[in-house]
Amino acid sequence: MTDKNTPVVAFIGLGSMGLGMAKNLLKHGHKVIGVDPSAAARDAFTAAGGSTAGSCAEAAAKADVVAVAVVNAQQVDMVLYGDKGAVSTLRKGGLVMQCATVPPAFAKSLGERLATSGHELLDAPMSGGRARAESGELTFMSSGSAPAYAAAESILAATSAKVFRLGDAPGIGSLVKTVNQLLAGVHIATAAEAMALAAKAGADTRAVFEVISASAGNSWMFGNRVPHMLDDDFSPLSAVEIFVKDLGLVLNTGHEHRLPLPMAAAAHQLFLAAAGAGWGKLDDAAVVKVYEAAGDFKVSSPKK
User: Fold this and answer.
1) pTM listed for this prediction
2) Are residues 30 and 150 in the same domain?
3) Which amino acids are annotated catalytic?
């Protein structure tokens, strides 16, 4: 193994958050081999000083840690166990640091599967979006063994502002991330609904935003997403389709435990409506367009 303080990292997924994470690893002295199907993403990473590989297996063969920042459980399975998957070449004792939002049961079974091949798993879903990925200030909701944390220590230090160590078994981190996504999705949906009501009833939406930001109705998502609505700028930072997926995962987890989740279900329907209208690749704040289309008005307002 290379120096434990700067393990070689195969970074799979140079997307909205992965690219920022991988760049921060470079800044902190890690050798990072990026893998992504997008040529533009690969070019952006090489321009920052990283290297790339043509397959997950090629990258993992040269690495101590495989970091996975893809969209869902299906993609995680594909990059680890599919054709030219990373596990086939990752050295014995090597770590998989799984950062995607996946079902808790999937993370648990992945840990068991990796253990049979002599590999460690750190279940480490993240929160913070592109901006915090770029600044190295992500929050990780993590769980795993002591060796897994030891192997990931320098990676977490380079990419996070806060690491929650929630247990010694994979699956716990993903369960807590599922709870977070329930709240995040519902908060975006209710922020859109509140601003839609303000606009339709004739209020100055920028004034409403200022008032709510200083009042009990505020939330982190309200403060972060409503400015996108006010500016009518839905350049994707986190897309509508992400919450179609994540709230679906939330509801499936509720089904497993026979727990009704009506607020999450209502928010999921709003994101589905936005995606069905063709706005799935826009920023998730574009759920407000569902209300705007239904009522023939705009939440956006000129800056004063």
Assistant:
1) 0.92
2) yes
3) 177
